[in-house]
Amino acid sequence: MVAQPTDLHDADTQDAAAAAACPVDHTAFTGAGTGDSAHHGYEPFDMTDPFPAYERLRTEEPVMYDERIGYWVVTRWADVRAVFDDWETFSSENAQAPVRERGAEATRIMKEGGFTAYSGLSARIPPDHTRIRAIAQRAFTPRRFKALEPTIRENTRTALQRMLESPDRQGDVLHDIAFDIPTITILTLLGVDPAMVPTYKRWSDSRGAMTWGDLSDEQQVPHAHNLVEYWQECQRLVVEAHQRGGDSLIADLVEAQGAGAEITDHEIASLCYSLLFAGHETTTTLIANSIRVLLSHREAWEAIVADPSRIPSAIDEVLRYSGSIVAWRRKALRDAEIGGVKIPEGAGILLVMGSANRDEEVFAHPEVFDIARTDARNHMSFGYGIHYCLGNMLAKLQDRIVLEETAAAVPSLRLTGEPIAFGENLSFRAPTSVPVTWEA
Ligand code: HEM
After folding, report:
1. Which of 178, 188, 306, 329 could cysteine-pair with 287, CB 3.0–4.6 Å?
2. What is the CATH number of the domain that holds 45?
3. Is there a domain that residue 10 lies in?
């Protein structure tokens, strides 16, 4: 008897369940198992259910050149880890480069708008990366995060209450809870008025689409305007911190600069540009995914309702099983080898952490969601090595608070069963809604 997920619309599991139940040989269409399919069923931008293709890649061609995107796709845990670890050979300088070339009109708009933003940290390389990260890290104090905890809890309770007022007991975890909470948190941290949430969400959507999306030249145009506005706002925030100081991460960086830290205003504005994106998009997805995956494995949801001390390990398992970022980029600075495959100097590499996190060489029964797993923390959803995510504790803190509050307030929460879609993207695997209902 094959264990069935409780919700067949959970895209993380539906294919496994469907494959177990369906008499049709799907491998006939994908070429899976034969090794003759061009890409083993891998579709770089399709985030609906990439896991069966990842599994085939790990088995059949763990280091595969994909000419459609111009990247070497790396899918085994050990290879992904080795590339992350060797920053001298594999640089992160392409991590934020547009996947699709920027069109002429978008380029003109951005140039005329004075858009000169550069990655705050993730695409910087040593020695600049080392210098800026050390300064930024000092501003990321546990004291700052701790101070935010009551506000995060309060915001969660307000959002939950509003959702639970729905007369027909219909909600959407993504829009009703997961959208606002991390955005308010990062805006508060950076000293921005939380009333700006919708504006920052609009700018962030543009940032995600322009860098990791598959947009035509024409589709890029409105996003180019948004990025110009977004960058102008980051620069204004730095000027304001110089003039007024205040209790924010930007003010801390400006103060550090005044005290002799080697960081320019442009670098501080670039950090804002990065944090105002990295600081919420992925956490929104983590919160939405946590509730989605736990509800679709009812026994896990009931376990955290009965014993909230299990929430931290449940979060690690969600990050392993359904991470917010499933792929991240690197560039070979010299001729190299990955998993025995020769990689030429200058080649782009796509590290598929979403696949590494399900590598059967590392995780027993990797396709099973199990919050009792003791090695879930070996996931690579926050990257690894010198660029390891600076905000991982803040992301987990917020997710823990949301899960604690939600499990306590509405233990009867469940998915409605409507299919859940995921936006097209090379790196970010984010549901577009998580419809839920609950008992009266
Ligand atoms: C679930 C939530 C999050 C996920 C999945 C995530 C994932 C990642 C990943 C994959 C990287 C690249 C690591 C590498 O190249 O090795 C990264 C870097 C980074 N993240 Fe996060 N992140 C999350 C939340 C946050 C938050 C809340 C913040 C800030 C408040 C943040 C700030 C950063 C920064 C600044 C870097 C660049 C670090 C460096 O290059 O030195 N992240 N994150």
Report:
1. 178
2. 1.10.630.10
3. no
Which residue range(s) make up the domain with 307?
A: 17-437
Please tell me the residue having the least CA distance from ligand 1 atom 6: 382
Q: Is 428 in the pocket of ligand 1 (CB under 6 A)?
A: no
286 CB within 6 A, ligand 1: yes
Nearest atom of ligand 1 to the alpha carbon of 136: 35
Q: Hey, whose CA ends up nearest to atom 35 of ligand 1?
A: 390
Give the contacts of 149 (CB within 8 A, at least 6 positions apart). Answer: 397, 401
Q: Is residue 12 in a domain?
A: no
In a domain, residue 111? The reply is: yes
Ligand 1 in reach of 354 Cβ (< 6 A): no
The answer to whether the Cα torsion of 85, 86, 88, 94 is positive or negative is negative
Neighbours of 212 (CB within 10 A): 22
**Protein residue with its CA nearest to atom 30 in ligand 1:** 279
pTM for this predicted structure: 0.90
State which of 119, 382, 402, 426 you would mutate to test the pocket of ligand 1, scoring each by most atoms of that ligand within 8 A of its C-beta.
Answer: 382
Ligand 1 pocket check for 235: Cβ under 6 Å? no
Q: Which residue out of 190, 280, 389 has the highest number of ligand 1 atoms within 8 Å of its CB and is therefore the one to mutate?
A: 389
Alpha-carbon distance of 54 to 194, in angstroms, equals 39
Angle at 71 between CA 68 and CA 74, to 5 degrees: 120
Atom of ligand 1 nearest to the CA of 385: 16
Among protein residues, the one with the nearest Cα to ligand 1's atom 27 is 279
Please indicate, yes or no, if residue 241 is contained in any of the structural domains: yes
Contact in structure between 6 and 296 (CB atoms under 8 Å):
yes
Cβ of residue 283 lying under 6 Å from some atom of ligand 1: yes
Among the listed residues 100, 94, 123, the one whose alpha carbon sits nearest the alpha carbon of residue 45? 100
- State which H helix or E strand residue 51 sits in: helix 51-60
Please report, in tens digits, the pLDDT of each residue of the chain (440 residues total): 223 333 333 456 443 333 333 333 333 333 333 344 689 999 999 999 999 999 999 999 999 999 999 999 999 999 999 999 999 999 999 999 988 889 999 999 999 999 999 889 999 999 999 999 999 998 888 888 888 999 999 999 999 999 999 999 999 999 999 999 999 999 999 999 999 999 998 999 899 889 888 899 999 999 999 999 999 999 999 999 999 998 899 999 999 999 999 999 999 999 999 998 888 889 999 999 999 999 999 999 999 999 999 999 999 999 999 999 999 999 999 999 999 999 999 999 999 999 999 999 999 999 999 999 999 999 999 999 999 999 999 999 999 999 999 999 999 999 999 999 999 999 999 999 999 999 98
Q: How close is the Cα of 93 to the center of ligand 1, in Å?
A: 15
Number of domains in the chain: 1
